[in-house]
Amino acid sequence: MASDFKASGAVKLGRLTGLIGAAALGVCLLGGAAVAEPGDSHIKIVTPPDKSVLEGPLAAVTVRLPTDRPDEIQIFLNRRRVRLPKRQYRQYMACFDGVELASGKNEIRVVALKGGKPVDESTSTVFLHSELSSDGARAPEGFSGYTFHEQTHERVCLPCHQLDFSKTAESETRAENSPCYQCHKKMLTTYANVHGPAAVGGCLGCHDRGAKPKLSVPKPEGKLCNSCHENSWPSMPFGHGPTAAGSCAICHDPHASNQPYFLRKSAADLCAGCHEEILAKPHVIVGFSNNAHPVRKWPDPYHPGKEFTCVSCHNPHAGLTPAFLQNYDGISPISNFCITCHAMR
Ligand code: HEC
Ligand code: HEC
Ligand code: HEC
Ligand code: HEC
Ligand code: HEC
Ligand code: HEC
Ligand code: HEC
Ligand code: HEC
């Protein structure tokens, strides 16, 4: 298939597209009518492939179109229709950025329509991995990890997209100038809070071009994070499991999130993903009525404006005591810890 592409004049046109915006790319290709097409009478999802395991919530859905082009395409994620911009489908490939998956299993169904009637469809069932939820922790039998950025997969896109980043600048000042933007822009436009270096297109500052797999971030990522975020945690006597291991991205999305601090879940739900047992039994105190200390749903007396959660009492990163209690030295009586809140009310 790739050799067909190489033989066509469209390859050269495609190569020009490095930093050209999406619209210009479209025009350039429509002009170059000589794109050699893989002839097929059926629609087929190319990415993400069936039974693949993905690590990020936003999937790029790319679809090879039948030679008899549909005049409309609909995408259904878990049977709900995804909103798509109105488009004409003249090329053999249709690309959609940022279909937002839920953790665990997801069904992506792409339907081709002609004259308003469905004529063909293709389905891909994928698994979004997440350490923070029981449905996302383990992929079902038959599913396997998927790395898009390797030669065999990228080859299919090369007639129209630039994927050689060896000569591009490592850092940009505008996200639009990043060579990643054309395919990953929804990562920066979907969520309310975007992490500084991602927001300015500094993708290649964290994603190593020379790495294997291509563009991966060396694990654990903590060293990288700490290169910009000076903090005193490593010198504290007690480090919290995942933080001490440098697995910051388990809790923080490195790119963007609707939560403050780019958390993958609200502070109230984040911890329970790994410490379910805390919610199952009384915590901190057992009064005579067997009432536990509340762990959520109150205003936090110590941090005005914030919800009372696990991190009102525990530092999520490290501390001076084995349970990383906030603002407590571990030497004075524990009541000194309690009164940080209770004396104030
Ligand atoms: C601050 C460092 C950093 C920056 C800047 C950054 N990334 Fe990432 N990225 C990571 C890390 C760390 C992971 C691995 C996350 C994990 O372990 O789940 C990752 C994972 C990804 C993934 C796969 C999983 C996911 O979360 O979707 C994609 C795609 C990605 N990055 C694209 C980008 C693009 C595009 C940019 C620029 C707009 C960018 N990254 C900027 C650190 C970064
Ligand atoms: C026949 C040419 C062609 C091929 C082959 C092709 N693309 Fe595209 N792609 C385009 C054009 C043109 C655009 C931008 C215009 C548009 O919105 O359709 C685009 C846009 C995209 C976008 C952004 C879509 C959006 O919603 O903003 C993604 C993601 C993408 N391509 C991924 C891929 C991947 C991955 C492959 C290979 C599996 C691929 N493309 C192969 C032509 C192509
Ligand atoms: C031609 C479109 C395209 C371009 C350009 C592109 N990506 Fe991707 N990338 C994808 C697709 C498709 C996936 C598979 C995941 C998905 O469905 O979104 C992916 C996945 C990733 C992943 C997860 C690991 C993997 O290989 O599957 C990382 C990390 C990533 N991209 C980083 C980047 C960075 C950094 C850039 C810019 C230097 C970039 N990408 C440019 C299409 C693209
Ligand atoms: C290239 C430097 C750089 C790297 C690497 C980096 N960050 Fe950041 N980070 C920043 C900047 C600048 C800000 C402040 C702007 C903002 O809020 O996005 C920030 C803000 C944050 C914040 C919000 C802090 C606050 O007080 O609101 C968190 C959380 C964060 N980063 C986590 C991480 C994690 C986790 C990693 C590793 C995956 C990481 N950062 C890697 C530069 C970096
Ligand atoms: C177990 C989950 C978890 C892990 C792992 C984690 N964090 Fe955090 N982080 C949080 C939470 C929760 C907050 C918000 C705390 C709050 O609301 O007071 C936070 C806040 C932050 C902040 C902003 C406030 C501050 O304390 O400076 C930065 C920066 C940050 N984390 C960076 C990191 C880095 C770097 C790593 C890896 C070395 C990391 N985090 C690992 C949960 C985590
Ligand atoms: C990715 C899984 C994960 C997440 C998410 C997580 N933890 Fe942990 N936590 C651990 C591990 C692993 C340990 C250390 C081993 C153990 O307790 O057996 C630990 C230990 C602790 C301890 C010390 C336990 C002791 O025995 O002294 C506290 C307190 C704690 N976590 C609180 C939190 C809080 C608060 C959050 C949310 C901000 C959180 N954890 C989120 C995995 C996690
Ligand atoms: C009112 C403050 C407070 C809140 C809120 C709180 N904790 Fe704790 N937590 C404590 C104290 C005090 C200890 C006991 C510390 C010690 O013995 O050194 C503790 C101990 C722990 C431990 C280790 C011992 C054990 O019981 O397993 C874990 C894990 C833990 N907390 C997790 C959580 C999680 C998860 C949440 C949120 C669901 C939470 N805590 C909410 C104060 C709190
Ligand atoms: C970060 C703030 C904070 C810390 C620290 C804290 N508490 Fe609380 N406590 C609260 C909040 C919020 C409530 C719920 C509102 C209320 O009852 O006024 C509460 C409620 C209570 C209650 C009433 C429980 C009920 O169900 O009636 C007791 C008793 C209590 N705390 C004891 C303690 C003890 C003992 C400590 C120290 C080990 C402690 N608290 C540390 C914030 C805190």
TrEMBL record:
InterPro entries: Multiheme_Cytochr_ET, Paired_CXXCH_1. It comes from the Bacteria. Residues 195-231, 240-277, 304-343 form the Doubled CXXCH motif domain. It holds the Pfam family Paired_CXXCH_1. Keywords: Signal. The keyword Lipoprotein does not apply. PANTHER family: DISSIMILATORY SULFITE REDUCTASE SIRA (PTHR35038), SURFACE LOCALIZED DECAHEME CYTOCHROME C LIPOPROTEIN (PTHR35038:SF6). This is Cytochrome c3 family protein. It comes from Geomonas diazotrophica.
